[in-house]
Every structure is written in C-alpha cells, then in structure tokens.
Please model this.
Amino acid sequence: MKKACLKLYKILFPAIKHCYHPRKTLMLCVAFSSMLDAIANEKIFAQNIHTVKLRVEKSFPDEKDDKVFMSYPINLDMDESGNIYISDQYLSSLLKFSPSGEWLASISKPGHGPGEFTNQTEIRYYNGKIYINDQANRRIQWMTPEGRYLGEFKVIEIPKRFTLHQGKIYALNLNSYLHWSSEKQKPNDLIWVLDEKGKRISAFGDHLDFDKNLSPPDNLAPSVSDGFIDIFDEHVYLLFNHYPILRIYTLAGELQKTIRFEGMNYAKRVPGNYEWKNFQRKIEKLPFKALFNAFNVNKQGIFIEVRNFEGFLIDQFDHAGNFGKRYSKEKKGKESYFRDFIVIPLAGGKAKFLILTDEDDVPRVDICVE
Amino acid sequence: MKTYLLFPAVLLVAIAFIFMMRPNQNDNQVVIPVTIGENIKENANLSFLSEIVDSSKKSVKYLVTVLDNVCSSCLSGEILFRLDRLQRQRKDMQTHILLPSKYSANDLSNIKSNYDLKLNFKPLSAKLEAFIQSNQKALNRKGIIGAICLIDSNGEVKLIQLVKLGVPFREIITLITKELT
Model:
C-alpha cells in the first residue's frame, strides 16, 4: 500500500505541475490509468509470485587486473568445456575466460580484412567455431577460438540476432529495415535459415499482427520486430523485445504456439506516438516495464530477463509458457545495465547463472547461484 | 594586299582546324545533371529516373551503377531496391550493379537470390577498382554510391547525377562503357 501511495504521488506531482499542457496531461492520464492497472496486476501477481534471490558466488574480471580490459561488452557465450567468450563491441574484441573466470586470451582485431571485425553485435559458439555478427563490415564471419580466420559471407542487413543448429544459421530480421523504411509494403519473413555459404534455404515467421493493443508508434517501426532467437529440442523460440510475446516454431517453420505473458508487470503497450529519441526517456517514466534484454531456453524452461529499474529480474517459465519462478539480483550501481546471461542447469531443478552487467561503467560477469 | 594580316588569319584557321579535328571526348557522353539533394529519401521512389528512362528517345539498353557497399540502412540499400522495381517494369533494359572485390562471387549470388532481385551483379574489374581506389579522395563515398548511368543501344551514355560528383567520375563512366559495350 505504501508503495502504491508513493507511486501515485510520483505520478500526480508532475501531472499537477504540467497540467497546463494538454498533450502532456493526456499522456499522464494514460500513464496514470495504466499505472492503476499495473498496480492491480502486480498485486494479483505478487500473491503467487515465487521470488528467489540470487547470490553472487564469484565476479570476474578483477577490476585491478591490468591484462583484461572491457569497455562495452554486450554478449557472451560458452563452449562445451565451459569456457566463456565475451564480445566487446566498442573495442572490437573477443575475450576468453576459463569456467572459473580466469582470463585466458583476448582477440582484438578491429578492421575490415579477413579475421578482423568491427563493432560486432553478437557472437555465438558452435561446433568449435566462433561466429561473429560483424556489423561494420556487413558480414557474418567465423573463426577458431584462437582467432584464426575460417570463413565469412556478406549480408545486406546485419541480423539482429542469430543462432546455429545442425550447421545452419537461423538469423532474425535480415530484411526488416528495408521493408519498413520504404513504403510499408508487406514485410517478409522474420527468420531466415541460411546455409554455411549464406544462401537462404528457407524463411518463416510473420511480423507481429498489430491490433489496438499492440499498435506500434509509426516511427518505431524498424524496431518493432526486434527480438531474440534460440533453439532447443528441435524448436525455434522467438521472443519479441518490446512486446510480451513468445512464439515457438518447429525447425521447418511451422508455428506451434504463441504465448502472451499477461497479468504481470510486462508492458501491454506504450501509449502515444513517440519519436524514438524520446522513447527510452518516456518509457522510464511509465509505471510498467516493456523491454526484455535477453533470454535463454534450456531443458529447465524459458528464462527471460525483464528490464526493471529497481533490480535485475529473470523470470522462468516452463516450455508451455506457464510461470515458474522469478530470480532477482540486487543492483549495485547507480547506473546499472543488464547485457546478457547464460543459464547452466544444475541437479535438483536448480540453476547457475552467468550474468553480464555494466554497473557504473564497471563491466563484469557475476556467477550467481540460488 | 595587307600581307601583315595573312599570318594571324592563317593562325586562326589552323587553330579552328585543329579544334574541329580534335576527337570529341563527349561524343558518347551526355551528362544530365539531376539535382535532388544529397539525401535520396527526398525523392525516395526514384520517379525521376523512371521518367528519364521513359523519355529517352533511344531505348535504354543498360542501367549501370557502381556501389562500394550494400547496406540496408544506407542510401545504397534504397537505391538497390528501387532499381530492382524499375528493372521489373522495364524488361527490355538490363540493370547492372558493380561491386568491389570484397564481395565474392558467392556473395553476389546470395544477394541476388536471397532478396529475389532481378538485377545483375558484377564484380568491378581490377582496373576499375584500382582506379577508384587511387582516386578515393576525389571519388568520395557518396560520389560512388550516387552515380547511375544509362547506356542506350547506340552506346550513348547518360549520367544521372544524384549527388555532387568528382571530375574523375567521367573516366569511370568511360571505363564502364568499354567493359559493357
């Protein structure tokens, strides 16, 4: 109740202050009603929620270690031996750590030639190779974990995310920008399946069918289909970034199930028609949180990181989309960002989490356990 | 007879003769400057290009453009997909996209098939690529991307000037013409 009152005060105070502005007042009214809705939903949800606090077992790299330097790590992956690979976008580097977090090697090759990469957005370890989403050079490149160049192919649009399965690349959003930016023609499929030479084998996945509850602001169009892709047990999982919708496809592209996460503090929609530059700012003022940062699928279920401004939250669902439990980890810094995570299943239904964060400009990986 | 006028008269005739006999470098180049500003999105549907193709007295045989990169969120992506639409409308015309050697034959094939484009992708010849690289300063990125030329059945070249181009671009057009015709 105290929290609800505080939230009401936070909303009402600026409403009174800005009531002379009709647009702002309207926006605040929408925010206010959404807030009441969210509080009601949270209240219902909070009665059943099972939150597990995560304990940090170890953090790496050590801040004092001069050999290891990270600036803007955005993505991590793990090989069969448990070695961890971290991609640093600003430094165009790739760092390798042992399972216990000891630094093993750094590959830093900014450039445009074979084996070099710049401003990479994602890395994936698959079958002894590291696949790199080389954004500046518009290509997907692969190399050995030691950094030896193995191959590449060019793409017109760099995929937002990709994953590998049975030697094929499942790439998300290889052509969304063109179609959305030009004449609003019907966009093509969201997921492209490419062979190792970059030739499209098949494609599937419709864009979101927007209705009143899911209408995107027009100028947010290029990003509405941003999301995450993962493959588990011969199924492709597609989670949208800004909308609480998860789709499950077969490898052949047949839609098996669509899960909408309702009744929780995930956003229903972002009211208004905002410009992108204002989107981030305004969403932070809203009482509900609309963004997911990362997700993992494994034998224990589906794990989704929920953007929350009070702490790091990871929600666990079973493969049918039923909520299981919520994991929470405290934020340490004033400015804390969740980048990526990996879930390692343990015996007894427990799990170990590797969480890549950036708190007060100190990037690190926390090994967390229940 | 005022013989002192003879010398300048002969000189004038000689100069005129030399000027007339000089091979005209622009014989097969008719430059049509089309100024649409630096941002192609101001005229995003490239309708002017379609109009020029349609209004051309002689049938347009080739439409050629040189791109140094193809990227969906850049001008090059817009040009590529607009040209594809034009190509679908004009089946008597061939559209060629020339790309540098960093694009392998496999990449060119992928771009065409993955995006279902009707365009012809060709690698730049070593000579042309070397020329572009040696004139990189004059031919800035926008200059290369913005240039589209039409070649009709008689080999006449029309350069559609989308953005401000460096002077050496004329030489590129000459090289392209020699390669294609």
In short: The radius of gyration of chain A is 21 Å. Residues 2-369 of chain A form a domain with the Neuraminidase fold (CATH 2.120.10.30).
